[in-house]
Structures are given as structure tokens and as C-alpha cells.
Write a sequence for this structure.
């Protein structure tokens, strides 16, 4: 690991401040509730593709949202006058799916973890609970039945079987409470019995047959009032031996309630939220449990899930459900609104546990961060956007590091906004990017050791090339291609995939899988599993590996056993910093060239559609050199880098251009333009 000389460490200076401000930061940047208010989702053309397979169809069905979900209420539902409030186009999709979605009774809202699915769903629930503009003439007062199971509240089981059982119990308890209230207030048990015993309904309600037999044997039943009938009905349900059977009874009873007294789609809704906190395998098990019970009641159901293709949903042909892609607000929009709201909250006041000095320092930093995010010439907004993907939660956790770190003094603003990026990227304890950072990945490692490896980058690159070819993104194909690029073992590749799958900052995702465990048979069914590039993973491959703050921190945090990379650099010396970074890039370039040459030899042994592997180092060096020349020129009047270092960077670009011509047989315009720019600036470095 490269030693950092004259590295800043304000741990002692900031210690008292951090103790005071940490609980306040947790309130300012908490991610579980929308605050200061709900932000309408980004402008987009919502669509409703469905991955669910109709049991009577051979292919997945496609729903055209322009035909089904419009702002115009269908004629058959013109009497359902909902108050939309301030819902945007995406929120209208969710509300319309509940209110009159004609094809499905269940909808899965899929999106990245922390992207705002919960906030959107809660906003729609509020819309459902608003007073209606007009009633349907069945009820005097519109009081929809809303069942809301939130996996952030009270679920303790870890094992899949125990957790799904806990889910059944939670759903059972809510249903029992809601249905008992309905029968105690406005519904008659006698009417249910009469309805259930009709010839056309016998199969649906056969599970109550023993209860009906008990009634027939009872001499006192006809003389009892409805409240006693209700008690006997629910006592009978309670005598069932398993929660599974009790839940089925309640779901079928809910079906009666919907048919008889809650005829509109929006009158009874089941919301299942924050399932995406579960491991992918458990998420699928819970979804299967939900769908298998929901089909008894056939009420409108909304489930929030992380990205999935549903391919591992057992018996998926038994269920038909819609899939809505989530369009949440941009994380930067949420950050901006949050900061703008809280800046004035500390004006001349000190909310507990802050003192006046700490409150003033916190307000100053809030203002500085807000200004840095709004600066069109700055890089902070881009870096936060790239590091968070579509996850608001991840962005909020990352920005806390701008306030709670040991690299910047708590009572002074940073010298420049780039220091905020440093604070986000570096560990509070070590002052550098840790490979095991829960929020940020170092894609210049293999996920196992803090040493240079292009394995993670190669994985992202292959997934990027095959982003529109899922059949070529199988685990088996990845293993074959990566083994041809370098002598990586299957276990090393799987470990790298596990590193990229990490839950809180998933750069890739695999349907129904959280990891590739030891002992997995890569020649078996797992070989056909498809690997997906997440929004965050695309950001890393497309943007972050060309971003100077990220690449510099990622490179200089690695161990370099080669003598060609210096063992130390002076953090305060521009020459020293860029010399160390350039030495690292030279090693990347050499490793890259070696792997591409090897792959060209092995490519013929792969399938016909094996991808062309390009030089990763060319894109990387071009992006970093572009930022470097700007820094070199802006600091020239203050000394800047010395002539020899400037020329070494120029030579690095020339070498990169020559490699492109040699390996790819073509020129790289970005490299040529940058090489010309360095040549044009050379007169300043005689």
C-alpha cells in the first residue's frame, strides 16, 4: 500500500463535533421517509412491460400503457372519481393500476434498492385514502381496506422458511383485524353463508364446509345476533391448525367482502413493501407466498421489489401479474431539496444536542455542499450521481461523509469542492478507499485482495457490450470469456461477481441470487443464469473509471508490489501525487495490453459471438489525462507540475495511442485530440 506523506487527519480536532452532530445528520439524511415532502418522480414516459407469463399464453404478455393507463378514466369506471392530488405521470400509472388496471390483480413495482419505491407507494396510498369526488352508491362512506405489510417493521427471522412463515402471520393478523371490523360494522355473516352455499360458489368456499355443517347442527344459531355470528366465524378460523390454512380462509372471506361490499378495484388493496431489503432468494420465496394467497382474494396488490426478471419464480405460469418499472426522483434532486430545507433550520439556533458553535459549523457545511451540488462547473453532483446510480438511499448515506470525516476540519469550509469528493471516497479511519467499503466498490481489484486486477472491470465491460443480448450474458459464457482473457480460475471469477453483487451497492444483479456460494456447480444449471448490469454498474464502467477523483483514490489505495510504483507520495505535492498516479496507470496499461494479446489468441476457441475485447486503459487514460491537463494549466502560475512530469504524461498518451493503432487497427480520436492538446501546451514546459 502506498504511504501517504503529509496526509491530513483531523480526528482529534473533529471528535467532539462529530459526537454532537451525528444524531442530527441521521435526521437530516435519514432515508426511510420522504422529507421535507414527497418529490414527484422524474419526467419520463412510463411503460408497463410485464415479465409475468400468462398461463394460457406461450410468450410473456406485453401491456401498452398508452392504451391502458391514461389520464382518462375508462367508460366502465367513470363513476370512480378519484382525487389525484399532485400525482405526476408515474404516480398516475401506479394509481391507475390499482383503480382500474384491467389485466392484472397484482403488480410488481421493480427498481433499484433505495430508489424511492416505498415513497411512491405511500404517496399512492394517501391518494386512495383521500375523500372521493363521488361515491359508487354501494357505500355511504368510502373507507377502502388497505393491508400494508412493511418488511422494515418487526420482521426478525433470517432463514427463508421462518421469514415466509412470519410474513403469513403478519398478513393473517392484519386480515383478521380488518375483516372482523367489517363484519361487526356493516356485513352480515348470514349473508356470507347464503352466498357461499350457492351452487356456483361451493368450490370457492369449500374450505368453510365444516363450519357450515356446525351451523346446520346448531339449534341456537338462528337466534343469535350478527356480532355473535361474527365471533363464532372467527373462532372457527382460529381453531385451524396452521397459519397457512387460517390465511387461506381469511383470503377467501376477503373475496366475499370484495364481491359483495367492495366492488371497485381501489376498495381493497394489499401493499407489500420493502421486500427488496431481503436476499434475492428470500425475496422470490415471499413473492411466491404472496401470489399464492392473493389469488384466493384477487384483490389489487402492489409489491415493491428490487430488479428481477422473475425467471426463478417457481411455477410462474400459475400466476399472471403486471410489472411496473419504477421511476423515482433523481437522487440529486432529493439531496438538493433536503439541503435547501435544512440550511435555514440552524440559523441562530441550536437544536439539541448541538451547541451554537456546532450548529453554525453544520449550517456552513450544509450551505457549502448545496452550493457545490448546484455549481454547473463542478464535479460533485456528477460524482454523487455516478456513485449512487438510481438509489436515493445510497446518495443520502454517501453525502453524510461530507460532514462526518477526518479529512476536513469541521469548522472550516473545504479549500475547493473536490475535497468533498475525497471525503466521500475515503474511509474515515484510514483516509483512503477501502476495498471492503460498504457503499463504494474499487473496480480495480478482484474483490478479494487490494491489489491491481482488471477482473471486475472486464466483467462490467462484457456485460456492457452484451447489454442487449441477455442470452450471451450467462454465467457460463462469462466464465469462458474471462478464462480466455487471463488465467483466472472459476472461483476467482465467482468471488469477483460476489464483490460486484454486494447488497448495498450492487453493480450487477442475478435473478434470485445474492451470491455464488462455494461448491456451486458452474457446469450445471447455474451456467445458464443471466447476469445483469445495474444502473450503478453502468455508471462505474462508463463514467467513474474516467473520473480523476475516483481513479486517483482507487489506484493510490492499492498495494503495488512492483518497484515501478513509488512506495510513498506527498499528498500536499502536486508533482508527487501525479507521479504516483501515472506510475499506476502505466501498470494498468501493461496489464491491459497483456490480456488483450492473450485473448486474441484464445478467441477462436470461443463461440462465434465472443466479443471484441478493447483496451480498457485507453478510455481510462483519456479521461484522467483530460482532467490532468486542466489542473496542470490552471496551476502553472503557482508552480504546478514540473516539465519532466508533464512530458511523462504526454508520453503516456502517445503510448496509449500507439497501442490502440497496434491492437485495434484504428485510431482513437479522443487520445489524438488530447495528445495534440498536450503538444500545444508543451511550450509552457521548456
Amino acid at each position: 500500500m502506498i504511504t501517504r506523506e503529509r496526509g491530513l487527519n483531523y480526528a482529534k480536532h473533529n471528535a467532539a463535533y462529530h459526537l454532537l452532530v451525528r444524531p442530527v445528520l441521521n435526521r437530516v439524511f435519514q432515508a426511510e421517509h420522504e422529507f421535507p415532502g414527497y418529490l414527484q418522480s422524474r419526467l419520463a414516459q412510463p411503460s408497463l412491460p410485464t415479465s409475468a407469463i400468462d398461463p394460457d399464453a406461450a410468450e410473456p404478455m406485453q401491456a401498452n400503457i398508452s392504451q391502458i393507463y391514461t389520464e382518462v378514466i375508462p367508460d366502465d369506471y367513470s363513476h370512480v372519481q378519484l382525487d389525484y392530488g399532485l400525482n405526476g405521470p408515474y404516480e398516475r400509472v401506479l394509481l391507475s393500476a390499482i383503480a382500474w388496471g384491467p389485466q392484472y390483480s397484482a403488480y410488481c413495482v421493480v427498481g433499484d434498492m433505495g430508489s424511492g419505491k416505498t415513497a411512491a407507494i405511500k404517496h399512492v396510498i394517501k391518494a386512495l385514502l383521500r375523500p372521493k369526488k363521488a361515491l359508487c352508491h354501494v357505500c355511504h362512506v368510502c373507507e377502502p381496506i388497505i393491508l400494508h405489510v412493511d418488511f422494515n417493521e418487526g420482521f426478525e427471522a433470517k432463514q427463508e422458511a421462518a421469514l415466509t412463515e412470519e410474513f403469513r402471520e403478519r398478513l393473517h393478523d392484519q386480515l383478521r383485524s380488518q375483516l372482523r371490523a367489517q363484519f361487526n360494522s356493516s356485513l352480515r355473516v348470514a349473508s356470507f353463508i347464503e352466498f357461499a352455499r350457492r351452487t356456483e360458489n361451493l368450490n370457492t368456499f369449500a374450505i368453510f364446509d365444516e363450519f357450515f355443517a356446525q351451523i346446520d347442527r346448531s339449534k341456537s344459531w338462528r337466534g343469535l345476533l350478527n356480532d355473535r355470528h361474527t365471533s363464532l366465524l372467527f373462532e372457527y378460523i382460529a381453531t385451524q391448525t396452521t397459519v397457512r390454512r387460517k390465511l387461506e380462509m381469511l383470503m377467501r372471506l376477503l373475496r366475499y367482502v370484495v364481491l359483495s361490499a367492495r366492488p371497485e378495484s381501489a376498495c381493497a388493496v394489499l401493499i407489500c413493501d420493502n421486500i427488496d431489503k431481503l436476499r434475492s432468494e428470500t425475496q422470490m420465496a415471499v413473492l411466491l407466498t404472496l401470489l399464492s394467497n392473493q389469488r384466493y382474494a384477487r384483490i389489487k396488490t402492489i409489491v415493491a421489489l428490487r430488479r428481477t426478471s422473475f425467471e426463478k419464480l417457481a411455477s410462474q405460469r400459475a400466476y399472471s401479474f403486471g410489472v411496473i418499472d419504477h421511476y423515482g426522483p433523481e437522487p440529486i434532486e432529493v439531496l438538493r431539496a433536503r439541503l435547501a430545507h435544512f440550511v435555514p433550520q440552524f440559523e441562530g439556533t441550536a437544536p439539541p444536542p448541538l451547541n451554537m458553535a456546532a450548529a453554525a459549523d453544520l449550517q456552513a457545511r450544509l450551505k457549502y455542499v448545496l452550493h457545490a451540488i448546484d455549481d454547473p462547473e463542478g464535479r460533485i453532483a456528477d460524482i454523487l450521481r455516478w456513485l449512487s446510480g438510481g438509489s436515493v438511499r445510497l446518495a443520502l448515506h454517501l453525502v453524510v461523509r461530507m460532514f462526518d470525516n477526518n479529512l476536513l476540519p469541521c469548522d472550516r469550509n473545504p479549500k475547493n469542492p473536490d475535497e468533498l469528493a475525497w471525503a466521500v471516497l475515503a474511509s474515515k479511519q484510514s483516509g483512503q478507499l477501502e476495498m471492503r467499503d460498504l457503499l463504494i466498490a474499487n473496480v480495480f481489484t478482484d474483490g478479494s485482495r487490494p491489489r491491481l486486477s482488471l477482473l471486475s472491470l472486464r466483467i462490467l465491460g462484457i456485460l456492457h457490450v452484451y447489454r442487449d443480448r441477455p442470452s450471451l450474458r450467462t454465467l457460463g459464457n462469462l466464465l469462458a470469456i474471462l478464462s480466455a482473457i487471463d488465467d483466472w480460475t472459476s472461483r476467482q471469477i465467482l468471488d469477483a461477481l460476489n464483490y460486484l453483487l454486494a447488497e448495498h451497492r450492487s453493480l450487477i444483479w442475478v435473478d434470485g441470487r445474492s451470491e455464488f456460494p462455494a461448491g456451486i456447480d458452474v457446469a450445471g444449471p447455474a451456467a445458464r443464469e443471466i447476469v445483469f448490469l445495474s444502473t450503478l454498474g453502468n455508471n462505474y464502467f462508463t463514467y467513474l473509471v474516467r473520473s480523476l477523483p475516483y481513479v486517483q483514490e482507487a489506484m493510490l489505495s492499492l498495494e503495488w508490489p512492483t518497484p515501478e510504483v513509488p512506495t510513498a507520495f506527498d499528498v500536499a505535492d502536486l508533482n508527487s501525487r501525479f507521479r504516483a498516479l501515472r506510475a499506476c496507470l502505466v501498470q494498468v496499461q501493461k496489464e491491459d495490453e497483456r490480456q488483450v494479446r492473450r485473448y486474441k489468441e484464445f478467441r477462436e476457441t470461443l463461440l462465434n459471438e465472443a466479443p471484441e475485447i478493447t483496451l480498457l486503459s485507453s478510455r481510462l487514460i483519456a479521461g484522467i489525462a483530460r482532467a490532468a491537463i486542466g489542473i496542470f494549466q490552471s496551476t502553472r502560475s503557482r508552480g504546478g507540475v514540473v516539465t519532466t512530469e508533464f512530458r511523462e504524461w504526454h508520453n503516456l498518451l502517445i503510448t496509449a495511442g500507439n497501442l490502440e493503432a497496434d491492437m485495434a487497427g484504428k485510431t482513437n480520436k479522443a487520445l489524438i485530440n488530447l495528445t495534440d492538446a498536450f503538444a500545444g501546451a508543451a511550450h509552457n514546459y521548456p
About this structure: The first helix runs from residue 11 to 28. The first strand starts at residue 3 and ends at 5. Residues 48-325 form one domain. The two ends are 34 Å apart (CA to CA).
